[in-house]
Amino acid sequence: GGGLGPSNISNDIHSPSLYPSHITGSAQDLYVIGVQEGCPNRQEWQNRLQLTLGHRYVLLHSAAHGVLYLSLFIRRDLVWFCSEVECATVTTRFFPLIKTKGAVAASFTFFGTSFLFINAHFAAGDSKVKQRIQNYEKIIKDLHRFDEVFWFGDFNFRLSKSRSEVDSILENLPENDMSSLLQYDQLSEEVTKGSIFKGFKEGEIHFRPTYRFNIGSDDYDTSKKQRTPSYTDRVMYKSRNQDDIHVLKYGSCSLMRQSDHKPVFGLFEVLIKPGNRQTSDASTSARKHGSDASACVLQPQLTEGHVFDNVTVTSAGRLARALTSSPQARPLLRVLAHILALKLHACLLTIA
Q: Domain count of the chain?
């Protein structure tokens, strides 16, 4: 699953050094991290994420639905301009207490633009296309209320070819040209039919299938089941205004071998609408996760006509604590009620 996106991490903790440099090496404004099969020690996972992102970021919000985790980190100087985060969960299992499939979502408003981030895990199995569409339909209610929607996770759609046929295509695949594989992608086929993700877009896929690998290696499944390599992990996006979201990068974390999936990430630039400055509800959320507001938020001093540029968002797992220390917050002398333009760079990571 705008730093990191969808991923299944099972019982292991990913090493932050294995994420591509454009996720952790360049300063983003917002990181959204979704995990579909989280490790039992969620606090340790969150601590690792906080350590990786560093003291410039605070935990805006984190939520969970069983083993699905969703975390939002934002630059500490921007938290002052976010509304309070709201979250919701949906289970798609027949028995509601079994929380391994479904979705966890979080929404907030940043200046005049409302965001919704959904981390989902759909039904598994090569033939369960109908069930996956039903999972989608159960989750999709009320999406129209938001300006920008990012939906990512382990959607479990497969390639409609046998293992031997896919292996043959992979052996002769031109570098960065996945069209010969994607013509058999179940998700692309259903999107074209209009049966799922209506109005959503996806970045161009120039990476190899992210499922299923032998854990600890780069070899596709060699077990008795010989599962067909597939693009199960995706990042989809939808905007109320057509040109608000631009894809900067869409790829996979190919060096990560702790799971049978390779995490997928998206890096996005989002145009933010003018709007009223939000109150400090978000700093209240940050305080609940471990820090005094005065230590969490370095309040910026804005003047009339100030324009933010190069603001970034990212998606993938679940986060830990907010900052434990930071420079003493300065009084806010003047706050701009309306801004003219804001570009938000969003990176979404889905870890299946």
A: 1
> Which residue positions in the chain have pLDDT lower than 50?
1-4, 11, 278-342
Q: What is the DSSP letter of 133?
A: H
CA atoms of 262 and 260, how far apart (whole Å): 7
- CATH number of domain containing 94: 3.60.10.10
349 in Cβ contact with 315 (< 8 Å): yes
Give the Cβ contact number of residue 303 at 10 Å.
Answer: 9
Q: Tokens at residue 192, please? A: 């074209």
**Structural domain containing residue 46:** 5-351
Both structure tokens of 72: 């939002």
Give the C-alpha separation, 18 to 24, whole Å: 10
**Which positions ≥6 away from 177 have C-beta within 8 Å?**
206
Please choose, from the candidates 158, 350, 203, the residue with its C-alpha nearest in 3D space to the C-alpha of residue 263: 350
Judge if pTM exceeds 0.85: no
Q: What is the pLDDT of residues 49-69, one digit of tens each?
A: 999 899 999 999 999 998 899
Rounded Cα–Cα distance for residues 196 and 110 (Å): 28
